[in-house]
Amino acid sequence: MRPSRYGKGTDTIIPNIKNLKTGFLIVVDSNYKADNYISSGEEYAIYKSKILDSAIYDYDKEWRKLTKKQKMKKLIEERDDWKKTVPIRHKEYNDGKQIVWLINNTNDTIVLQSTLGQFYCVLQAKNIFNEWKSIELAPMAFDNFCQGYTEIPPHRANFFKAEIPDTGNYRTTLRFALLGLDSIYYSHEIKGKINYCQFKFHRGYSDYYQLDTFRRIVYWKYKNR
Question: Domain residue spans in the chain?
Answer without folding.
Answer: 2-37+94-223, 43-93
